Amino acid sequence: MTDAPAPTAVSPVADLPFPPETLQAFSQLCVGRWMSLRSIFALDGSEEWHQSERGEVEIRSDDDPTGCAALTVSDGEGKPLSRLVFSADGVVQRAGGAAQAIQSGGWQLRKDGCLELRFPADDDAEVLERVWFIKANLRLRTTTLVDRSGTPQQASFCSEIRRVSSPAR
Questions:
Q1: Torsion angles phi and psi, residue 95, rounded to 5
Q2: Which of 32, 29, 11 lies closest to 19, judged by CA?
Q3: Mean pLDDT for the chain?
Q4: For labelling alongside 7, which of 49, 51, 122, 160 has CA 20 to 30 A away?
Q5: 44-53, 76-85, 95-104, 146-155: least confidently modelled range
Q6: Three-state SS string across 105-123, please?
Q7: pTM of the entire structure?
C-alpha cells in the first residue's frame, strides 16, 4: 500500500474579487498563514548593507467596532507581532511592533489593489509601506524609511506565499 499525498486545503480566497477593490476585500485576502522571505537593505553606505531572513506569518481578521477592518499579525509560533486597525477616514493605528506602542498613520487603497501605509518614525522620518498581491496566494511588500528630506535610509522587500496546507512538522 502506498502513502497517498495529504489533501491540499482549498484557498478560502478563491471567491474574492481580484485585485481587491475595497479595504475589506484586501484584508480578507491577507488572512492566512504565509511563508515569508524578506531582504533588508541599509542605504547609509555601511558594510552591513544587506540581510535576508525567512519566517512564517499568520494574519487574522478581527472584529472591529468601527466596522472598517482590523488585522492581527503573528509569527509562526502564534506570538502576536502587531495589530492594525483601519478607520474609514484613512487613519490606521498599529499596536505592537518594535516600538511596542500605538502609532497612528495613514492608509490608502489604490485603484490597482495596492495598499499604502504611512507611519511616522524617529527624527521626523517616515516609514512608507506598500502591500499588493500578484495572485491571491502571492503577496509582496516593500518598506522604505525616508528621512525628512525625502532621502531613503533603509528599504526592505518581502515576498510571501500563502500556505494552503499545514507545514510538515
A1: -110, 140
A2: 29
A3: 86
A4: 160
A5: 95-104
A6: EEEEECCCCCEEEEEECCC
A7: 0.83
Tell me which residue of 162, 151, 106, 96 sits closest to 129, measured CA to CA: 106
Torsion of Cα atoms, 11 then 63 then 23 then 124, to 10°:
-120
Tell me which residue has cell 497612528: 104
Question: Can you list the positions of beta strands (E) in 17-169?
Answer: 32-42, 50-61, 69-75, 80-86, 91-96, 103-109, 115-120, 126-135, 138-146, 152-162
Radius of gyration, alpha carbons of the chain: 17
Query: What is the distance between the alpha carbons of residues 35 and 158, in angstroms, rounded to a whole number?
Result: 10
In tens, the pLDDT along 122-164 reads 888 999 999 999 999 999 999 999 999 999 999 999 999 999 8
Instruction: Return the pLDDT at 101.
Output: 80
Residue type, 54: R
Q: Which of 75, 98, 73, 92 lies closest to 83 in space, CA to CA?
A: 73
Helix (H) or strand (E) holding 24: helix 23-30
Residue 99's Cβ-side half-sphere holds a number of Cα atoms within 13 Å equal to 12
